[in-house]
Amino acid sequence: MFKSLPLEEFYRLINHGPCVIISSGDDKKSNIAPIAWKMPLDDDPPLVAIALAEDHYTTELIDATKTFVINVPDVKLLASLLGAGKVSGRETDKIKKFGAQMAKGEKIKTPHLADAIGWIECNVADKKTYDGVVLFVGKVLFAAADDATFDGCLDPSKRPTAHHLGGGWFSVADKRIKL
Ligand SMILES: Cc1cc2nc3c(=O)[nH]c(=O)nc-3n(C[C@H](O)[C@H](O)[C@H](O)COP(=O)(O)O)c2cc1C
Questions:
Q1: How far is Cα 136 from Cα 67, in angstroms, rounded to an integer?
Q2: 2-173, superfamily in CATH?
Q3: Pick from 93, 105, 40, 102: nearest CA to 68
Q4: pLDDT tens-digit map of 161-179
Q5: How is the chain split into domains, by residue range?
Q6: Is the CB of 57 inside a 6 Å radius of any atom of ligand 1?
Q7: pTM
Q8: Could you report the per-residue pLDDT of 60-73, keeping only the tens digit for each?
């Protein structure tokens, strides 16, 4: 079961820096791609930034719909979808190829991953391009999380997340401590 989050808590899905899957497009044509480079910008108003290569199909779809979703996979789901970071949605239907289960958006037409720990629906508030890299700033419209894994913040001991170190290497967050 998922519960919607107060918008000012969206950042608690990605504060610890997991590798995420961006879904883009709409109910007719959609795409998925893993990304490591993303960050919360503010909780009120709820803003988030993602960095994408200008020539990614994901970037083209976000430009077309002005929306995107940040999906937070657990390590198992990420491992099953990681191949989506090696091919482009321009040539391959990656949702079909990697067996991603998609679900309808709550506030936008861009679908999200049905099996993720949580997802963050955004529309594009700003876009800047630097030498082939696009920084999209998203205004968060909706966020939801698996209620068994999120109790005010994420508990990765319930569903560990993976963090990209570089190349094929990841670290895994699998415990929560209070300091
Ligand atoms: C672990 C991992 C992290 C990645 N992080 C990013 C990222 O932060 N930004 C980016 O533009 N591409 C990133 N990529 C590459 C894209 O996922 C990849 O180029 C993808 O094929 C783009 O697909 P598209 O053309 O369908 O959008 C990453 C790939 C992997 C495997």
A1: 10
A2: Electron Transport, Fmn-binding Protein; Chain A (2.30.110.10)
A3: 105
A4: 999 999 999 999 999 999 9
A5: 2-173
A6: yes
A7: 0.99
A8: 999 999 999 999 99
Q: Which two tokens stand for residue 50?
A: 């993602």
Q: How high is the mean pLDDT in each 10-residue block of the chain (179 residues)?
A: 98 98 98 98 98 98 98 98 98 98 98 98 98 98 98 98 98 98
Ligand 1 neighbour 20 (Cβ under 6 A): no
Preceding peptide of 160 cis, ω within 30°: no
Rounded to whole angstroms, the Cα distance separating 41 from 36 reads: 16
CA–centroid distance, residue 73 to ligand 1 (Å): 15
**Most informative mutation of 56, 77, 131 for ligand 1 (most atoms within 8 A of CB):** 56
